Structures are given as structure tokens and as C-alpha cells.
Prior knowledge:
- By secondary structure, the chain is mainly α.
- 76% of the residues lie in helices and 0% in strands.
- It has one helix and no strands.
- It has one helix at residues 2-64.
- The radius of gyration is 33 Å and the shape is rod-shaped.
Amino acid sequence: MVFILIATFTMLNLFISIIVNAMHSFTEAEAQETMDAVSEARDHMKADLHQEMAALRREIAAFKFLPGSGNQVVSPGVDLSSV
């Protein structure tokens, strides 16, 4: 009788350990997928920011000097529509 009880308890522990191990593996895979998605999004945002910065630098370079005025630096707040 005791042998049957111990064998049953051992088998139950084996099944529970298989289930827990499977859940742990699933959690690790899910965490890795999340980290990959975050990394991909970060790289995409970084590339977009670099493009935006390059565009802003080109705009600043285009407005930095007034044409025909001896390369005078444009001051903030100057209305360029009258030029």
C-alpha cells in the first residue's frame, strides 16, 4: 500500500514538473520575442530620428545665410517673407 502511494506521488510530481518546465520555456520564448520587438522598434525609431535630424540640418543650412547680403547670419525671429 505504501509503495503504491509513493509511486503515485512520484508520477504526479513528474507530470507537474513537465508542465512547469513547459510554462517556463514558453515564458522565456515570450520574453525573447518581446526583447526582439523592442530592439527592432528602437532601431527603427533611431533611423527615423537620424533622418529627421539630417532634414532639420539641411533646413537650417538653407536658412542660415541670406542670399545677396554678404552671408549675413539670419537672427531668430527675422521675417524671411520680405526678402
